[in-house]
Design goal:
globular; DUF1232; membrane; transmembrane; about 120 residues; transmembrane helix; DUF1232 domain-containing protein; mainly alpha
Length: about 120
């Protein structure tokens, strides 16, 4: 299970690193944009205010979309991006956990602000 999560995060980071490559297909860029939009927009399958489950859908859906988009990359682009991804992860081992924590904090803040704006 941990190996699958690591491989999904590696592919997600590889996709983000490959977005600037002109050989990256438009479909991969669109999927990456959808993943980022899903993470940032207040519209979710499960509202962020729902304890645990509200955040869990973001933690599962966003990396899955990014990993699927990474699989649409041409092999040379993916290989090069995976290499860069591994180098980044070796240099910055705290990057992924820090990114997850930052994302959770932003979603919590967004949910709280939405809750306050709705006058609840």
């Amino acid at each position: 299970m941990i190996a699958r999560i690591r491989s999904g995060w590696r592919d997600s980071l590889a996709l983000l690193l490959a977005l600037g490559d002109r050989r990256t297909p438009a479909g991969a860029k669109l999927m990456a944009a959808l993943a980022v939009a899903y993470a940032l927009l207040p519209l979710d399958l499960l509202p962020d205010l729902t304890p645990v489950l509200g955040v869990a859908d973001d933690v599962l859906i966003v990396p899955t979309l990014l990993a699927l988009a990474a699989r649409t990359l041409p092999e040379p682009v993916l290989t090069q991006a995976r290499g860069r991804s591994l180098r980044v992860q070796r240099r910055l081992p705290w990057l992924i956990p820090a990114g997850i924590v930052a994302l959770l904090l932003l979603m919590t803040l967004g949910g709280w602000l939405l809750w306050r704006a709705l006058g609840a």
